[in-house]
C-alpha cells in the first residue's frame, strides 16, 4: 500500500505556488493512499520568527488545508509540533546518519544561511528534520514542488544508508513530480520562485486568501515581454510561460503547449488565467470563511490527526532506535 507524506511550513500566507505544487495535489491524492499532511511548524523556526505570528499562520494553514478539501475522515491532517517528540527524536537519529558535508551542500542552506553570523543551527540540520518527517510514517511517495527535490533525494540517501548500516527499518520514498506548474514563478520577477516568505503582500505573489479583484489586478500587472508571441519558452519568456503553466494547472490541462496554441494575445491570456485562478480560489475562500468561525472544530480535527500520526509513527521510531542500539 502507498503511503504519502507532505507538508507546508507556516512561514507566511500560503500562495498559489503552494496550492499548485502541493495542497491542490494533496486533495486529489487523499483517496489514493494512506496520506499524512502536516503543517510543519517546527520547520518555520529555522529562521527568525515571531511566536504569535507562527501560531496564527499555523492555524491559518490548517484551516486552509481543510478549506481546500482535505477530509479528516480520509487523510491525516496534523500539526507537526503536536507530535513533535517523535519528529525530534527521529531527527536526532537522522543527524547521526547524515554528514555535515551533505547538509552544507543543500541549496536552501547556501542561499539563506551560509556565512551569516546569525544563521540558526536548525537551518543547517533542517533536511534531517525533513527526512525524519518523511521516514517516520513509512512514506512511499512524497508530492512536493520542484524546489524540494534535493531534500527528498537526501532523505532517500539517508534511508538507504541507515538500512545498510543498521538493518532494514525505513521505506525508501520516491518523489512525485507535479505534471505542470511544479515551480510557479513570481509574477513580477518570473525568474524567481513564488514563495510565501518573501515580502509582505508583494504584487508578484498570489495568496490563497487574496480576493478576486486582487488576483485580477496582480495578473494584469504580471511581467511578460514585448515580442507579443504566445509560446512556451521557460528561459526566453519566463513571465509568459509562467502564466501558461498557471492556466494549465488551474484548469487541469496536461499540456502547456496546447494551452499556448489557443492564444494570440497576452491580454486575453492574462484575463483567462485570472479567471481560472479565481475559479479555484473562490470555493476555497468560502469554505475558509465558514471554518474560521469555529476554531474549536479545527482544533478537534488537529487533535485527532495528532493521535493518528502518533500511532502511525511510533513503531518506525521504536524500530529505528532498536536498530541503532538505543531505547
Ligand atoms: P518558504 O518561503 O517559507 O520556503 P514556500 O512558499 O517555498 O515558503 P514551503 O513551505 O517551503 O513553501 O513548501 C511547501 C510546498 O509547496 C512544497 O511542496 C514546495 O515544493 C511547494 N512549493 C513552494 N513554492 C512553490 C512554487 N512556487 N511552485 C510550486 N510548488 C511550490
Ligand atoms: Mg520553500
UniProtKB/TrEMBL annotation:
<protein>
    <recommendedName>
        <fullName>Tryptophan--tRNA ligase</fullName>
        <ecNumber>6.1.1.2</ecNumber>
    </recommendedName>
</protein>
<keyword id="KW-0030">Aminoacyl-tRNA synthetase</keyword>
<dbReference type="InterPro" id="IPR002306">
    <property type="entry name" value="Trp-tRNA-ligase"/>
</dbReference>
<dbReference type="InterPro" id="IPR002305">
    <property type="entry name" value="aa-tRNA-synth_Ic"/>
</dbReference>
<comment type="similarity">
    <text>Belongs to the class-I aminoacyl-tRNA synthetase family.</text>
</comment>
<keyword id="KW-0436">Ligase</keyword>
<dbReference type="GO" id="GO:0004830">
    <property type="term" value="F:tryptophan-tRNA ligase activity"/>
</dbReference>
<keyword id="KW-0067">ATP-binding</keyword>
<dbReference type="Pfam" id="PF00579">
    <property type="entry name" value="tRNA-synt_1b"/>
</dbReference>
<dbReference type="InterPro" id="IPR014729">
    <property type="entry name" value="Rossmann-like_a/b/a_fold"/>
</dbReference>
<keyword id="KW-0648">Protein biosynthesis</keyword>
<dbReference type="InterPro" id="IPR001412">
    <property type="entry name" value="aa-tRNA-synth_I_CS"/>
</dbReference>
<dbReference type="InterPro" id="IPR050203">
    <property type="entry name" value="Trp-tRNA_synthetase"/>
</dbReference>
<keyword id="KW-0547">Nucleotide-binding</keyword>
Amino acid at each position: 500500500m502507498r503511503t504519502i507524506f507532505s507538508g507546508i511550513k507556516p512561514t507566511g500566507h500560503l500562495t498559489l505556488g503552494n496550492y499548485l505544487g502541493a495542497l491542490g495535489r494533496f486533495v486529489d491524492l487523499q483517496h489514493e493512499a494512506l496520506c499524512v499532511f502536516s503543517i510543519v511548524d517546527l520547520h518555520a523556526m529555522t529562521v527568525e520568527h515571531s511566536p504569535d505570528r507562527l501560531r496564527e499562520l499555523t492555524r491559518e494553514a490548517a484551516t486552509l488545508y481543510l478549506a481546500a478539501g482535505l477530509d479528516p475522515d480520509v487523510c491525516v491532517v496534523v500539526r507537526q509540533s503536536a507530535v513533535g517528540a517523535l519528529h525530534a527524536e527521529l531527527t536526532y537519529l537522522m543527524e547521526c546518519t547524515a554528514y555535515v558535508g551533505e547538509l552544507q551542500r543543500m541549496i536552501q542552506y547556501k542561499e539563506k544561511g551560509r556565512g551569516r553570523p546569525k544563521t540558526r543551527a536548525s537551518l543547517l540540520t533542517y533536511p534531517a528534520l525533513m527526512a525524519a518527517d518523511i521516514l517516520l510514517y513509512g512514506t512511499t511517495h512524497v508530492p512536493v514542488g520542484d524546489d524540494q527535490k534535493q531534500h527528498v533525494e537526501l532523505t532517500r540517501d539517508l534511508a538507504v544508508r541507515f538500512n545498510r548500516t543498521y538493518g532494514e527499518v525505513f521505506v525508501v520514498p520516491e518523489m512525485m513530480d507535479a505534471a505542470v506548474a511544479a515551480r510557479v514563478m513570481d509574477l513580477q520577477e518570473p525568474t524567481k520562485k513564488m514563495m510565501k516568505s518573501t515580502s509582505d503582500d508583494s504584487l508578484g505573489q498570489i495568496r490563497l486568501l487574496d480576493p478576486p479583484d486582487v488576483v485580477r489586478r496582480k495578473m494584469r500587472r504580471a511581467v511578460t515581454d514585448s515580442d507579443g508571441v504566445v509560446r512556451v519558452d521557460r528561459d526566453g519568456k519566463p513571465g509568459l510561460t509562467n502564466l501558461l503553466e498557471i492556466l494549465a494547472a488551474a484548469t487541469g490541462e496536461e499540456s502547456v503547449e496546447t494551452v499556448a496554441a489557443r492564444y494570440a494575445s497576452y491580454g486575453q491570456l492574462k484575463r483567462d488565467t485570472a479567471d481560472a485562478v479565481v475559479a479555484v480560489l473562490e470555493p476555497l475562500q468560502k469554505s475558509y470563511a465558514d471554518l474560521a468561525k469555529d476554531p474549536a472544530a479545527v482544533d478537534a480535527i488537529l487533535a485527532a490527526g495528532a493521535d493518528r500520526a502518533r500511532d502511525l509513527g511510533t513503531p518506525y521510531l521504536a524500530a529505528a532506535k532498536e536498530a541503532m542500539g538505543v531505547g
